Amino acid sequence: MKQVKVLKGLFGAAAILVLVLVSCQGITVETETVDPPSFDTLAGPYAINQTVHIQHTDPAVTIWYSVNGAAWSSATPGVAIPVNFGESTIAAYASKAGLRQSATIQSRFAVVWESLPALPVAQTQLASAVLGGKIYLFEDDFVQIYDPVNKSYDDKKVDFNGDADYLQSRNGMATGALGSILYRFGGSVGTVAQSTSCKYSGSDWTAATALLANLSFGALVNHENALYLLGGTSAIANPIVGGANNTIYSFDGTSWVDAGEELLERLCFISGASTGVSGSIYIAGGIAETGVKTTKVHRYLPSSNLIEVAANLPEATDGIGMASMNNVAYLFGGANSAEVAKNWVFSITEGSSTLEAKTSMPLSLTGVSAIAYGDYIYLFGGYNGGYSASALRYAPLLDHP
């Protein structure tokens, strides 16, 4: 009996050992996790192209990365990812044999400025308008048509040196489009401001309704199927002493009308932008008739014929380029009272009284021409110690954290 009990005890111990071994097969042994990689560049918008490196403290790990949701690629630590004009979302993690892979990191990078082919001739204070998918640029006898699709220029349309007075070479003119017609108003011939105007509908330039006053260097804005001309000067030889204007005129394609309201200062060397249907017209900075530059950003509401100060610039500035998109007006560059050109960019949303700083231009410029087309704002020419041939494209829809 004692022998039998001993055998039973041995068999019981063996069974327990088998059960323990079987149970252990389902147990996962915990292992160390790889530290996540890091980017050497902060997320956010930039003015120029960037190179983002994915780094890791352990040179033996493998870096896995994906750009804008594409298939994962493997690389060694320090791999360089180019970020060009546009938006790039980069995701990355690290792996190493015998260890758990790291957590995934992800950041958004955007380059919101792109350099375009330079202007054939360096210029400043260009008048610009969009017609038929092309951007028309005017100053003196300089006439260029820029094709945004092919990124090319055509200077063979017209030479403003004709016999008719409305075809004279001019600077400081106001240019805008209504429907399928491009208009060119006023400007100066030498030191004399003009009121005569012309229009272009696809073939020839012909005379258009003259301005109600001799004016140049005012702000022409397309707003709700009408063109509005705000401010300007009649004294070209010395535009900052007595010649500045504060009137507001509107043009419906047939005749000009005095709006009966005035800017709060007599201003020239200004530009403007409309924030769309039922929105406002914004005018930023400028030179008053006293010769002093202003910090004021005017808001004009055509629907109620009301003018007010919407915001103030950080410094008194003139020569600001302006354009608008999606109910937001954008301000580019300009020169302060010490004639130092700026590269700043601000936006002001319809109804707001706050200027929001955006990604600065890659160049400091005053007198730059800004015009919106498609999803972009195009900037041409300008001045900073000399005329500029620069051409830039800005992506406001990408300019956010």
Could you give a quick summary of the protein structure above?
It contains one helix and 37 strands.
Write the layout of secondary structure elements.
Layout: H1 2-24, E1 38-39, E2 44-46, E3 50-55, E4 62-67, E5 73-75, E6 79-83, E7 86-95, E8 105-111, E9 113-115, E10 127-131, E11 134-139, E12 142-147, E13 152-154, E14 174-178, E15 181-185, E16 188-189, E17 192-193, E18 197-200, E19 205-208, E20 219-223, E21 226-230, E22 245-251, E23 256-268, E24 272-274, E25 281-284, E26 287-288, E27 296-301, E28 306-312, E29 317-318, E30 321-325, E31 328-332, E32 335-336, E33 345-349, E34 356-357, E35 369-373, E36 376-380, E37 391-394
Please characterize this protein's 3D structure:
With 401 residues, this protein is mainly beta. Helix content is 6%, strand content 43%. The chain is built from one helix and 37 strands. The chain has a five-stranded mixed beta sheet, with no helix packed on it. Strands 20-21-22-23-26 form a five-stranded antiparallel beta sheet, with no helix packed on it. Strands 9-37-36-35 form a four-stranded antiparallel beta sheet, with no helix packed on it. The N terminus is likely disordered.
